[in-house]
Amino acid sequence: MKSENFETIAIRTQTERSLHKEHSSPIYLTSSYKFEDAEEMRALFANEKEGNVYSRYSNPNTSEFIDKMCLLEGAEDGFATATGMAAIFTTFGAFLKNGDHLVSSRSVFGSTHQLLTNVFSNWGVTFDYADLDKPQDWEALIKPNTKMIFVETPSNPGIDIIDLEFLGNLAKKHNLLLVVDNCFATPYLQQPIKFGAHISIHSATKYIDGQGRVLGGIILGTKELIADVIGFARHSGPSLSPFNAWVLSKSLETLAIRMDRHCENALKVAEYLEKHPKIKLVKYPFLPSHPQYEIAKKQMKQGGGIVTIVVEGGIDAARKFMDRLQMFSISANLADTRSIATHPATSTHSKLTEEQRNEVGIEQGSIRLSIGLEHINDILADIEQALA
Predict the structure, then answer these.
(1) In whole angstroms, what is the distance from residue 340 CA to residue 199 CA?
(2) Distant-in-sequence, close-in-space partners of 278: CB < 8 Å, separation ≥ 6
(3) Who's near 20: CB < 8 A, 6+ residues apart?
(4) What CA–CA distances, in Å, run from 354 to 281, 291, 357, 361?
(5) Buried/exposed 192-202: b ≥16 CB within 10 Å, e otherwise
(6) Whole-number Å distance between alpha carbons of 161 and 141
(7) pLDDT of residue 19
(8) Cα angle, residue 188 at apex, residues 339 and 369 outer, rounded to 5°
(9) For residue 146, what are the β-bridge partners?
(10) pLDDT, position 84
């Protein structure tokens, strides 16, 4: 039975059952595979025949995870990596070479910033940052040697949004590769490829797993582009483990229902905090006060599970608020079933200068709230007592 419904695809896409007729896909903890004869071995290594050669290349568990994500995201092919940052590094490594230039959104994850400034810059790749809230400035940054546009939307942790259709048209006009980090939205809320993106990247560690258990990442795109990714990844070795792939594939079965609750809780938290006298600013895509609210409504199904706030009183007030939280976890992670509070300026984005943080709206009083699946009354009660 074929279905176009997200939930059914996420649950019913599986590897072919073995002779044991298992209902749930087993874990294939094997590093290598047996060939029927020397000719099959030759044909597989020559890419004349499809099949598993070595688990650094492919594995039934990673293949199932990739197949599901391709169907959910609207991609032709994909490659699963050990972490989200491995997915970003592999994408940059596969398509950027000495002398190339890329345009990136200024508001990116701290480790992505480190890759651009301290790794690829040493390899002769240059870049310019552009602001998500100033789309009129992007085209002027494109140079003859520009190869790629890279963007997070919603961004981490500023929750800024950019019009993906606009970027898709811009990339098409200048024959550039548009790469979107879709981690915060997940394929349930947003499919960048539908708006013109060539590659969509996820840190599967976050909402795909959603329970703080395993690390993982994935790169999705056309067969032609993913062939280049595979060519780079097979030899650099960032592959996802079979066990983690099995966990992530099973996690996709509950992604839709989890995201519905994350979004429902997050919107209620954002609406509550927007009226609180001790909160200077609230950023959430589906709040009408968000600067890119209309764009978010156009390209996202719901607003996601992350609310970013700025507490009145700067870093001292932010620390006091976090230390008084009783149920929320203080952690650098996000997208867990458990609600989490993070102070980006001293953790995830601490390697940026204060000027760089200010440019993307990370103040000393900024706190990223990853709203979990607890009862909304308990979430709000914890926030209320911590702000009292």
Answers:
(1) 29
(2) 311, 312, 313, 317, 387
(3) 26
(4) 19, 23, 5, 10
(5) bbebbbbbbbb
(6) 19
(7) 87
(8) 20
(9) 101
(10) 98
What digits encode the pLDDT tens for the residues 333-378? 999 999 999 999 888 888 788 888 877 778 899 999 999 999 999 9
Residue showing tokens 């009226």: 275
Q: Give residue 2's pLDDT band: very low, low, confident or very high (50, 70, 90).
A: confident
> Which amino acid is present at 215?
L
Give the Cβ contact number of residue 284 at 10 Å. Answer: 28
User: CB count, 10 Å around CB of 295?
Assistant: 20
Question: Which residue is it, tokens 């290598």?
Answer: 32
**CA–CA distance, 181 with 151 (Å, rounded to integer):** 6
Whole-angstrom Cα distance, residue 106 to residue 153?
11
* Contacting residues for 98 by C-beta, under 8 A, at least 6 apart: 123, 124, 125
Domains and CATH numbers, the chain: 6-251 (3.40.640.10), 256-387 (3.90.1150.10)
Q: Collapsing DSSP states into helix, strand and coil, what is residue 77? A: strand
Q: What DSSP string runs through 293-357?
A: HHHHHHH-SS--SEEEEEETTHHHHHHHHHHH-SSSEE-S--S-SS-EEE-GGGTTTTTS-HHHH
Residue 16's nearest CA partner among 83, 68, 64 is: 64
Tell how strand 340-342 and strand 329-330 pair up: parallel
Alpha-carbon distance 65 to 79, whole Å? Answer: 9
Q: Which residue has the tokens 């649950």?
A: 11
**Cα 218 from Cα 326, distance rounded (Å):** 34
Q: Is pTM, for the whole model, over 0.70?
A: yes
Given this model, what pLDDT does residue 254 score? 98
Q: Say what the pLDDT of residue 350 is.
A: 83
Instruction: Calculate helix-pair angle for 223-236, 84-95, nearest 10 degrees.
Output: 110
